[in-house]
UniProtKB/TrEMBL annotation:
Molecular function in Gene Ontology: ATP binding; four-way junction DNA binding; four-way junction helicase activity
Compartment annotation: Cytoplasm
Annotated protein name in UniProt: Holliday junction branch migration complex subunit RuvA
SMART domains per UniProt: HhH1
Keywords associated with the record: ATP-binding, Cytoplasm, DNA damage, DNA recombination, DNA repair, DNA-binding, Helicase, Hydrolase, Nucleotide-binding
Gene: ruvA
Length: 200
C-alpha cells in the first residue's frame, strides 16, 4: 500500500495533482482545499490511500494522516464510496465530521453533498462506536472556525463530484438570485446546481 508520497508537484488541476517521485509521476485525487495548497515546482508530501476497483486504481491524497484515516473510516459505512467520503472532507474538517458522528449531529452531516437525513442517521448508527470518545474541547471546535459561505460549500461539493471550477461558478452565479438571507439549504442548492449543470 502507498501510504504517502513526497516529491515535486508537476501538475495541479481542479480535482487531481501529479507528484513526481524518483522520475515517476503519480496522479493523486484530492479535495479543492488540499489542491489549493500545492504549488507546481514545489516539494510536497501527501498522505495517501489506494482505492481498488475492478476497472481502476485511484490514489487519493490528503494533507494530514487524520484526513486519510477519516476518509477510510467513512467508507466502512454502507452506501459510502470514495466520492462521498471525499465530499465530506471537502466541506468539513475531520474534527467536525468526527464530532458530528460522535454526537449524532445529523444537521452537520446533511451539509455534505449526497448525504440526506437517512444517510446521516446511518453514518451515526454505523460509525459512532468506531469514532470513539472525543476530547471535551472537541465539542466546541466545529463552531470555532471561520464560517464557510454557501457559495464555497456548493463549489467544493460540485468540484468533489467532478465538475470544474468554471462550471461550478457558473451554476453558483445562476443560483445567486434565489438565495435570500443567511439561512440557506446547502443540500437543496447543491441539487439545484447539479440539475443546472446536467441540462447544459
Amino acid at each position: 500500500m502507498i501510504a504517502s508520497l513526497t516529491g515535486t508537484v508537476t501538475h495541479v488541476s481542479t480535482s487531481t495533482a501529479t507528484i513526481t517521485v524518483g522520475g515517476v509521476g503519480m496522479s493523486v485525487r484530492a479535495t479543492p482545499g488540499t489542491l489549493a495548497n500545492l504549488r507546481v515546482g514545489g516539494e510536497s508530501t501527501l498522505y495517501t490511500t489506494l482505492v481498488v476497483r475492478e476497472d481502476s486504481l485511484t490514489l487519493y491524497g490528503f494533507e494530514a494522516p487524520d484526513e486519510r484515516d477519516l476518509f477510510e473510516l467513512l467508507q466502512t459505512a454502507s452506501g459510502v464510496g470514495p466520492r462521498l467520503a471525499q465530499a465530506a472532507l471537502a466541506v468539513h474538517p475531520p474534527a467536525t465530521v468526527r464530532h458530528a458522528i460522535a454526537s449524532g449531529d445529523t444537521a452537520t452531516l446533511t451539509r455534505i453533498p449526497g448525504v440526506g437525513k437517512k444517510g446521516a442517521e446511518r453514518l451515526v448508527l454505523e460509525l459512532k462506536d468506531k469514532i470513539g470518545a472525543l476530547p471535551g474541547s472537541m465539542a466546541t471546535e466545529p463552531k470555532a472556525g471561520r464560517p464557510v459561505s454557501w457559495r464555497d460549500q456548493v463549489q467544493q461539493g460540485l468540484m468533489s463530484l467532478g465538475w470544474s471550477a468554471k462550471d461550478a461558478n457558473g451554476a453558483i452565479t445562476k443560483l445567486d438570485s434565489q438565495v435570500d438571507g443567511e439561512a440557506v439549504d446547502i443540500q437543496g442548492l447543491l441539487k439545484q446546481a447539479i440539475r443546472l449543470l446536467g441540462t447544459k
